[in-house]
Specification:
This protein is mainly α and 202 residues long. The chain folds into two domains: 3-65, Homeodomain-like (Arc Repressor Mutant, subunit A, Orthogonal Bundle); 83-198, no CATH class. Helix content is 66%, strand content 0%. Helix 2 crosses helix 5, helix 5 (60-77) packs antiparallel against helix 6 (90-113) and helix 6 (90-113) packs antiparallel against helix 8 (135-148). The termini are far apart. The relative contact order is 0.11. Residues 38-57 bind DNA.
């Protein structure tokens, strides 16, 4: 272990310096958002020299993208588990997915607000995503699985249904961000509207 790494990590800490830097930036984002976050501030909080960050990341944007990804995962750990396909009632499960999506978007809004004018960070954030791990991907996967199980119509346009739900979640947080207030979406009505389009026909 290098002296620089030894000084930055606590005794017994089982993670790399790169992971330490991501965790430090994620904690700072969680506590104060992304606005005004600097390389110097992250380095100081992590206990390393400013230049050390560039030994592990190509630039500040890459570090922030990974830290934002870690922040999203942290918010998700505080939410209720999503239901599995084939369990419970489809309508109830869909409401759970919508409720989860709204809570997730509200949870990450303070951090995302500081990145509205930073498209390069948002692009890196999207690139850092593993296919299938985002809430939207899981929603689409859930709907596809229910269709395959015959609990939705065989010609159900699940991607369009998912886009509809994601759009409502985005509208809620963007209205709050730009107007300071947002109407609370009617989860039951949205789930019913989606199922009217993809439900089984009698």
């Amino acid at each position: 272990m290098s002296p620089r790494r030894a000084a930055a990590l606590r005794d017994g800490e089982d993670r790399s310096l790169r992971e330490h830097l991501i965790a430090t930036a994620e904690r700072m984002i969680s506590e104060g958002g992304t606005a005004g976050l600097t390389v110097r501030g992250i380095a100081r909080e992590a206990g390393v020299a400013d230049g050390v960050l560039y030994n592990h990341f190509s630039d500040k944007e890459e570090l922030l993208a990974h830290a934002m990804r870690a922040h999203v995962r942290s918010v998700e750990r505080g939410l209720s588990p999503l239901p599995d396909p084939g369990t419970g009632e489809v309508a109830e499960n869909l409401r759970a997915y919508i409720t989860y999506g709204l809570a997730l978007h509200h949870g990450i809004l303070p951090a995302m607000a500081g990145l509205i004018g930073r498209p390069e960070v948002l692009a890196r954030f999207a690139e850092a995503n593993e296919p299938g791990e985002d809430w939207r991907d899981r929603l689409v996967g859930y709907l596809r699985a229910e269709r395959a199980l015959g609990r939705l119509a065989p010609d159900a346009r699940v991607e369009a249904a998912a886009a509809m739900i994601v759009g409502v979640c985005h509208e809620a947080v963007l209205s709050l961000l730009f107007h300071g207030t947002a109407p609370e979406p009617d989860v039951d009505a949205l789930a019913a509207a989606v199922l009217d389009g993809v439900g089984l026909r009698s």
